[in-house]
Amino acid sequence: MRARSVAFTQTLVTLASVLAFSLTGPAAVAGAAGRAPSSHHGECATPSIDRLQQWLASGEGTTVPATGSLLVPAGNRYAAKVTFLNAEWHVAVVWLGNQFEAQEDFTRSRGFWLTYRAADDLYVQLRPASHWSGGDKWLTRVPSTGGKLVTKFFSFSPGAWTSLPELGTPPYSFASALTEARGLVFVGKTPNRLEFRGLRIDGYRPPCL
């Protein structure tokens, strides 16, 4: 009777071990590493996406809306929506410190996760405070999603960023831009329908204003 009880106990221990591995083993770890971390900061009292409150149409290029905030209700949260019209350069801006005068140091950040949908390719520029104006900025391509909502990681590794001859060569290094980042600016030259649902920057907690 005692031997049977010991065998039953050993069976329970083995089943518990298998269950624990199935929940925390390689497949689960790989899945967690492949997606953006869940937001743990809490949204702001006014409309925001991952605590970023200023998503703006700048009035450059023909867009809908033409100017002002891109934020619209989306269930119990908000989304930033903008449509680029015509074959011309369009600009949509995110102020990273929630006010134009703010700047952030991202030299220790790995990059950012963007949750978005796009009908066509576009670019995102990292604009520094000291060289805010003009198109001659470091940028990286934001690929089309075919209209599907996806989450993609964009690295702050200098090798991932380039410039476009049509817009000009930046007169500063990408490394210096990381030390005084004022905004992420989405630019595109083709008609496009864009929706942004998340923007989480590694190691950064935007201040609500």
TrEMBL record:
The keyword Signal applies. It comes from Amycolatopsis saalfeldensis. Keywords: Signal. The keyword Signal applies. Residues 1-27 form the signal peptide. This is Regulation of enolase protein 1, concanavalin A-like superfamily.
